[in-house]
């Protein structure tokens, strides 16, 4: 797919994909993110297997790619942490619904009263 592209064009394409990835992360479009990251990974592997010239432009381009990749990695970590925090909060809410009970005037929890068998009698 990328065979005919020059090294510089491939590097610019990686930068473009990283920018697109950032947008997908920011809008939480995970299905699209998976597909894009697979394409990006193939292009990065191809780029790494065919090193460019060792001039300042190439070094600057590689640094831009590294910088954008680190930026996206921070977004991914923030996204992951947000999901983990949400999961923890949902677990707390779920747990609290089973722990509602009676409390004394000082705020300490009273033992649960014995459960009574209830019958639903109607006249």
From TrEMBL:
Keywords: Plasmid
Renumbered residue ranges of the record's region Disordered: 96-123
Record-given protein name: Flagellar protein FlgN
């Amino acid at each position: 797919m990328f065979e005919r592209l020059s090294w510089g064009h491939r590097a610019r394409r990686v930068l473009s994909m990283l920018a697109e990835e950032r947008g997908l992360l920011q809008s939480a479009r995970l299905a699209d993110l998976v597909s894009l990251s697979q394409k990006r990974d193939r292009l990065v592997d191809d780029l790494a297997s065919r090193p460019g010239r060792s001039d300042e432009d190439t070094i600057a381009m590689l640094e831009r790619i590294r910088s954008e990749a680190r930026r996206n990695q921070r977004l991914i970590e923030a996204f992951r942490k947000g999901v983990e925090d949400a999961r923890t909060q949902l677990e707390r809410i779920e747990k609290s619904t089973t722990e509602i009970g009676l409390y004394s005037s000082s705020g300490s929890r009273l033992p649960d009263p014995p459960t009574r068998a209830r019958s639903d009698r109607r006249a």
